[in-house]
Amino acid sequence: MLRRRINGLTTFPPLASTRIGSQLPLDPFRNFHGRLYSEGNINGKKEGEQLEIVEKLREWQETAKKNGSERLAIWKSNAEQNLASLGSKLNQLTGYELVEALKRQVVEQEAKIEHAKLASRVAKLAYETAVSERSMGQREVNDLLQRKSSWNDADVIRFTNLVRLDHNNEQAEARAKVEVEQTDSAVEQEFQNLTRAILNRYHEEQVWSDKIRSASTYGSLLALGLNLVVFFLAIVIVEPYKRKRMAETFEKRVEILSADTREMLEAVATRVESRLSLQD
Questions:
Q1: CB-CB contact of 11 with 4 (8 Å)
Q2: Largest CA-CA distance found in the chain, in angstroms, rounded
Q3: Tens digit of pLDDT for each residue in 197-215?
Q4: ∠ CA 51-56-61 to the nearest 5 degrees?
Q5: For the residues of 107-156, what is the DSSP string, one character each?
Q6: Is the dihedral of CA 17, 20, 23, 27 positive or negative?
Q7: What whole-number distance in Å separates Cα of residue 102 and Cα of residue 207?
Q8: pLDDT of 134 strictly over 80
Q9: Within 10 Å of residue 138's Cβ, how many Cβ atoms?
Q10: In the chain, pLDDT over 90 holds for what percent of residues?
Q11: Dihedral, CA atoms, 120, 122, 127, 128, nearest 10 degrees?
Q12: What is the C-alpha to C-alpha distance for residues 109 and 185, in angstroms, rounded to an integer?
């Protein structure tokens, strides 16, 4: 047993505690595991924060991209509207709006001609059908007349019906012929209207072109006049002023050089006099 002497007395070390808990063996890896667990929690928190930051950056990028697309679409729409409005105002100012109206009139007239041609084709087809039906009825009537001596009751009834049908076919053919003539006349009229519209369009385009050419000529003459005015002003006002400034600048420089030369000569004369006085 361990013993210690203090002031001549022999003492023994304190006995270990008899508690059960104090007798349990200590875990040497407890602190190490705790550090690993705490470091894992810290790393997990850092990774979570990084993921959250990345997600926020992605959301911000998507939002910025969406807002940019919307702003670009709005700006594009506004630019198109402004350009259209500017073009309309320019056409009104130059008189090209009338030319545009005549162009639309020509397009509409072409559509009317196509419609009239279609109606004419339909009328001609109906007329051809009426002529064909009447021809067939007349052919059958002629066949019955050739064997008139051998008619029976059915042939008499058939002949009566064919005569009535031929009369109806004749009226239908006449109506179809009138319809063909009317549609042909409408086509001719629409073609004349189209020719007139094209002539009016080219006439207005020529007038507009002459107007623009005249405006360009007047603009060129105005620019030439302004250039001449500027040229004369430069000759009468600017050039004398520039010559005056140059003369004044030259005189100042001459005066400065003269003063410098005078000072230099005076300095040289002073040195020479001082040397002569020293030699005497």
A1: yes
A2: 181
A3: 999 988 988 888 888 888 8
A4: 125
A5: HHHHHHHHHHHHHHHHHHHHHHHHHHHHHHHHHHHHHHHHTGGG--HHHH
A6: negative
A7: 13
A8: yes
A9: 14
A10: 14
A11: 110
A12: 15
